[in-house]
Design goal:
single chain; alpha+beta; Ribosomal Protein S5, domain 2; two-stranded antiparallel sheet; 6 strands; rod-shaped
Length: 294
């Protein structure tokens, strides 16, 4: 199982007795599956077959296909001599020469100037034979393209996994820091009350505990941390799938961003906020990588 990048290139060649096909394919990022084929006009009837072949292997990305054809045989035209007409032209030229004592020779170049002396016919080609040759070249290009996309996908997956490890470690630190924030808030509140009263009076511990409990409830980030860890686990699992996962990963990154933003707004702690900034930075780097995954 492996993920695929949307970036790649492949080239293939195939020949038979009559023709040589060269096919080049390149793919780049695209939201949908967009396939563009550029080939000689007389082969446009094969365009949909080419697209179907690519669609079977590539589900997302813009793929540009370039097909060139070199004729090795007689080509698609047949030229023959119209013997009866040429004979009549020749007879007429001889009569002109003899009757008017014209000294110029009757040359081949002179015959070529007469209309219809040469018959040009379109030679019927075997469409199945043409497609088979083109298909062989296209298969080579497609295999090379897919192989490059897989190799690039493996690198992307490795990078994303390492960033997930880093994020998971920061989330663990935030989770450990969270209870300390409540205690720090309680201590700070107690000091502020004493400063406001400007005298060493006893502070009601019960009221302090109530305020701290309200703060703890308001700043509790347990649910967000659980969901964030769940999204990280889903992201890792998705990286092992073979089907296109780009849109799924994009959704998971959005949800992870939502959870970390909530943690930052609820924690009200400078140290945790700094960790949140680090996580958001890593998520943005992952999001950029995900844009290139099929």
């Amino acid at each position: 199982m492996m993920i695929k990048s949307m970036t790649g290139f492949g080239r293939g060649e195939a020949r038979d007795s009559e023709r040589l096909f060269t096919v080049e394919m390149k793919s780049v990022n695209h939201r949908y599956n967009d396939i563009v084929v550029r080939m000689p006009k007389r082969l446009t009837y094969l365009e949909e077959k080419m697209k179907d072949m690519v669609r079977n292997e590539i589900k997302r990305g813009r793929v540009e296909i370039y097909v060139t054809l070199e004729n090795l045989g007689t080509g698609d035209t047949k030229i023959s001599l119209n013997h009866p007409l040429a004979a009549q032209y020749y007879q007429c030229l001889r009569e002109i020469k003899n009757s008017f004592e014209v000294k110029d020779d009757i040359s081949v170049s002179l015959f070529s100037k007469f209309p219809d002396v040469f018959i040009i016919e379109s030679r019927e080609e075997d469409e199945d034979e043409i497609w088979q040759c083109l298909k062989n070249a296209a298969n080579q290009a497609l295999e090379a393209l897919v192989a490059m996309r897989i190799a690039e996908g493996e690198k992307l997956a490795l990078d994303i996994r390492s960033r997930c490890d880093y994020i998971e470690n920061i989330v663990r630190i935030i989770e450990e820091r969270s209870p300390e924030v409540v205690q720090a808030y309680k201590t700070k509140l107690k000091e502020r009350i004493r400063e406001m009263l400007e005298e060493a009076v006893a502070v009601d511990d019960y009221r302090l505990s109530m305020e701290a409990a309200i703060y703890a409830d308001r700043s509790n980030i347990t649910e967000e941390i659980v969901r964030l860890n769940s999204h990280i686990a889903q992201l890792r699992k998705s990286l092992k799938e073979s089907q296109p996962i780009g849109r799924k990963l994009d959704f998971l990154i959005q949800e992870m961003n939502r959870e970390i933003n909530t943690i930052g707004s609820k924690a009200n702690d400078l140290e945790i906020i700094n960790y949140v900034v680090d996580v958001k930075s890593e998520l943005e780097k992952i999001r950029e990588q995900v844009q290139n995954i099929e």
